UniProtKB/TrEMBL annotation:
Residues 4-160 form the Glycerol-3-phosphate dehydrogenase NAD-dependent N-terminal domain. The gene is gpsA. Pathway: Membrane lipid metabolism; glycerophospholipid metabolism. HAMAP family: NAD_Glyc3P_dehydrog. Belongs to the NAD-dependent glycerol-3-phosphate dehydrogenase family. Catalyzes the reduction of the glycolytic intermediate dihydroxyacetone phosphate (DHAP) to sn-glycerol 3-phosphate (G3P), the key precursor for phospholipid synthesis. It comes from Macrococcus hajekii. Its EC number is 1.1.1.94. This is Glycerol-3-phosphate dehydrogenase [NAD(P)+]. Substrate binds at K106, R256, N257. Keywords: Cytoplasm, Lipid biosynthesis, Lipid metabolism, NAD, NADP, Nucleotide-binding, Oxidoreductase, Phospholipid biosynthesis, Phospholipid metabolism.
Length: 332
């Protein structure tokens, strides 16, 4: 039995804590929301983020970050990208020893273009950090919490972290592959949300399967182009963090990014769509980050640019579709 703390009591943190509890580990969750922490500890449920799912009877959560951080040497970081910097600062302030941090967030920081592991390494003092990894792949929290078969990848530059992540999480309904391409996995997990937003928009507009297949295929080409420019292995994008996560987010009603896109396609404003969601839609900020990165690194990303125009300039969707379809003739 290993002591592990899961920081973030949203849908994904809760589902992953449940996997670790099923594997017999000593898990403490931390969240800033008192009501959620109380429901998790007393009722073994998270009605706000995972309604109608009964979790492990050993589920326990605290709102004291100091208790959670010092409960374990292994921390699972499960908060949205925009909260990562702040949480790392808090961990760094209260920790009494070095930590191995496995994050599960799918985003990039606008302006700095940083991946999550880069933010963690930048904020944490070197002697407070034992190792960093990311767990990513096609995995809706709603299905994992119901113990439905799921496969993911654990990526790190450090072989021990990859092995640790695989050993801690793997069970008969949660299969974990190791991958040494940290850059590729983090970028794939972040950028697929852009394509999921676009796929939802396409469905909301009433376009068919051809349009969605085109978005997914050419979207994967965009993801691969930027990933490779940043140092990723192109083969990573045929795996969990590429094709796998694209399929699960572009084709599922569970995906918040797809649902947000669908609402935009049906005519809601971005603010209306986000307000009705109540959960994080990472793809919106990531579209901004990827748009800026594609310009800075001179990587062609036409779907990202079209979505950026729709989200941030109020550009008409149909006009952007026309622009995409009438780009200069080219080779596949
Ligand atoms: N849900 C899923 O199926 C999957 C999600 N992910 C990724 O996991 C990450 C977390 O997403 P998910 O759990 O789904 O998100 P949710 O929207 O379900 O929950 C977000 C959680 O993070 C908390 N939070 C938000 N901002 C901060 C902050 N600044 N500091 C501390 N806590 C904060 C919220 O607290 P509060 O309740 O107080 O607002 C809430 O507990 C995202 O990057 C997502 O892409 C990855 C794979 C699957
Ligand atoms: O990343 C996910 C599944 O792999 C969850 O996607 P959403 O954030 O769009 O719900």
């Amino acid at each position: 039995m290993t002591a592990i703390s899961v920081l973030g009591t949203g849908s994904w943190g809760t589902a992953l804590a449940n996997v670790l509890l099923d594997n017999g580990h000593d898990v403490l969750m931390w969240g800033r929301n008192h009501t959620v922490a109380e429901s998790l500890t007393q009722d073994k449920q998270n009605p706000e983020y995972l309604p109608d799912i009964i979790l492990s009877d050993r589920m326990t959560a605290t709102t004291s970050i100091e208790s959670a951080v010092n409960h374990a040497d292994i921390l699972i970081l499960a908060v949205p990208t925009k909260g990562i910097r702040e949480i790392c600062q808090q961990i760094d302030q209260v920790t009494t020893g070095p930590k191995t941090i496995i994050h599960v967030s799918k985003g990039l920081e606008p302006k700095t273009f940083k991946r999550i592991s880069e933010i963690i390494e930048e904020v944490m003092a070197a002697d407070h950090l034992q190792g960093v990894g990311v767990l990513s792949g096609p995995s809706h929290a709603e299905e994992v919490a119901r113990r439905q078969p799921t496969t993911v990848a654990i990526a790190s530059h450090d072989k021990e972290v990859r092995q640790l992540g695989q050993d801690l999480f793997m069970c008969d309904y949660f299969r974990v592959y190791t991958n040494d391409d940290l850059i590729g996995v983090e970028i794939g997990g972040a950028l697929k949300n852009i394509i999921a937003l676009a796929a939802g928009l396409s469905d909301g507009l009433g376009y068919g399967d051809n349009a969605k297949a085109a978005l997914m295929t050419r979207g994967l080409a965009e993801i691969t182009r930027l990933g490779v420019k940043m140092g990723a292995d192109p083969m990573t994008y045929l795996g969990m963090a590429g094709l796998g996560d694209l399929i699960v987010t572009c084709t599922s009603v569970h995906s918040r990014n797809w649902r947000c896109g669908e609402m935009l396609g049906k005519g809601l404003s971005l603010q209306q769509a986000l307000d009705s969601m109540g959960m994080v839609v990472e793809g919106v900020r990531t579209t901004q980050a990827a748009y800026e990165m594609s310009r800075a690194y001179e990587v062609e990303m036409p779907i990202t640019h079209a979505l950026y125009d729709v989200l941030f300039n109020g550009g008409p969707v149909e006009q952007n579709v026309r622009v995409l379809m009438n780009r200069q003739k080219t080779n596949e």
